[in-house]
Specification:
By secondary structure, this protein is an alpha/beta fold. The chain contains 17 helices and 7 strands. The two termini are 44 Å apart.
């Protein structure tokens, strides 16, 4: 994430490299860099003759090199972008000779998405030496909230921790999907808005009252009525709330409660750092720890693992999936 920002900063400043080999499992950062180059490096009147878009399935190394070796027409430079370059196969290796002696007036951007280029290969080593070799890594789920806050801040918005949690719970760590929803919010809400769970519910359709965040919170407060109200909502809406991710989130939550018990310091900063959660949520874990002693939490984690096995069909179980969650809640709250 930091490296992608640095690359964009250099491009904005006009510090261009002749080759950008962008690869990795997270497509969002690759698309962000290549889209910026496509939209901004050339003036609109220069693009017709000086911007070439190629696709991995429809091209080969020879065509890419031929395009990259052309001289710009009535412009300082030209741009060649190869999208879906993961489909080039061994043709990528054949670009090594061009990388060794590239045209300084060409920006060649290779978008190799969803997997990594072997950095031991010569083509990768040469790209790193004369240009940019950027690996776009998947963010861990506990990093996505910070990324959302950073994106919205850069656009002139604030976003509350609960709203961030709801997006991560609903969309996971798929940055492209999350960014699409954030763009919708930017179209609807004026700059300077502090985005809340109400905005998420009204504009994205995620319930602010019936979600895994509220279930964890209700369990932490031992609010039995609310726990089962949420469970009933999940049962009535199984497509929007499949049970396996819910069980995974419960496991993650109580694992953090167990970790909280073992911390030598219970200060807000220490807990936030150890549990890798926003400081906003520290009080929730402190409260849960009061209701659930360490031995009880260990028992709960064991019950969650058993429920996970039942949901996945391991061992005979007379329960329907929606009943497995209710049974688990009973075990947790007893």
């Amino acid at each position: 994430m930091t490296e992608a920002k640095a690359i964009l900063k250099d491009i904005r400043a006009g510090n261009y490299k002749p080759v950008y080999l962008l690869h990795g499992e997270e497509s969002y950062f690759i698309d962000t860099i290549s889209d910026y180059v496509q939209k901004n490096v050339l003036e609109e009147h220069e693009k017709d003759f000086n911007q070439t878009i190629l696709y991995g399935k429809e091209t080969d190394a020879g065509q890419i090199i031929a395009a990259a070796k052309r001289f710009p027409m009535m412009a300082e430079r030209q741009v060649v972008i190869v999208k879906e370059a993961q489909n080039l196969g061994r043709e990528l290796d054949k670009l090594e000779n061009y990388f060794s002696n590239p045209m300084e007036s060409t920006l060649l951007v290779i978008c190799y998405k969803y997997k990594k280029v072997d950095k031991r290969k010569k083509v990768a080593k040469v790209a790193a030496k004369i240009g940019v070799l950027f690996e776009s890594k998947k963010l861990y789920e506990n990093q996505v909230g910070g990324w959302i806050e950073s994106v919205m801040k850069s656009k002139g918005y604030l976003i509350e921790p609960k709203a961030t949690y709801m997006l991560v719970e609903f969309l996971g760590s798929d940055l492209a999907k999350i960014n699409n929803e954030l763009q919708k919010l930017q179209l609807i809400l004026p700059k300077g808005t502090s985005i809340t769970s109400h905005h998420i519910e009204e504009n994205i359709g995620i319930s602010k009252d019936f979600n895994a965040f509220e279930l964890n919170k209700a369990l932490g407060e031992r609010n039995v009525k609310k726990c089962f109200a949420i469970s009933n909502y999940f049962s009535a809406n199984p497509k929007q709330h499949p049970i396996i991710p819910i069980i995974a989130l419960l496991y993650n939550y109580f694992s953090k409660v167990l970790l909280y018990h073992g911390l030598p310091s219970k200060s807000e900063d220490a807990v936030s750092k150890a549990l890798k959660v926003n400081r906003f949520f520290v009080k929730d874990y402190a409260q849960a720890a009061k209701y659930y002693p360490m031995r009880k939490v260990s028992s709960i984690i064991s019950s969650i693992k058993d429920a996970d096995l039942k949901v996945k069909g391991v061992g005979a179980s007379p329960f329907a999936q929606q009943d497995i969650l209710k049974s688990l809640l009973v075990e947790i709250l007893n």
